[in-house]
Amino acid sequence: MYKKRNFIKIVSLSFFSLLLAPYKFAFSEIKKIINKNLTKKQKEIMFNEGTERAFTSKLLNEKRKGFYLCANCGAKLFSSEAKFDSGTGWPSFSEALPGAFKTKIDYSFGMKRIEYHCANCGAHHGHVFLDGPTATGKRFCNNGLCLLFVPET
Ligand SMILES: [Zn+2]
Prior knowledge:
Blueprint: H1 2-28, H2 40-48, E1 66-70, E2 76-79, E3 83-84, E4 92-93, E5 101-106, E6 113-118, E7 124-129, E8 139-142, E9 147-151
Antiparallel strand pairs: 1-2, 1-9, 3-4, 4-8, 5-6, 6-7, 7-8
The structure holds zinc ion (ZN).
């Protein structure tokens, strides 16, 4: 009797996980290319977790007031207020706008890093480190190619 009940439990559990599988897939893989004009390099960074070469971003020296948007979907990600010069060679920010990103732990290259994705389109943007120089303690290290700067008018 006991064994039979256990068997039913296992069968119903696997039935449930089968039922949930497509939803799990849909929610974890919402990455989608919205901007059809993305370059090959941009796609490689945003959808294949690539990284641009350090000190190549035109945004490194951008000091105007404005907002940084996702180059794929146009979501507002950072305010210029949060930008600072980290000396790392990538545009750096002390905080993101509320709800802009989702994070996940990245174990590639033998390191444990926190990777972040645009909450709207799922595109990879960079990594956040906990050694920031300002009160937030955070340093968002963002690939410049994933950002679109819109100056305040
Ligand atoms: Zn996006």
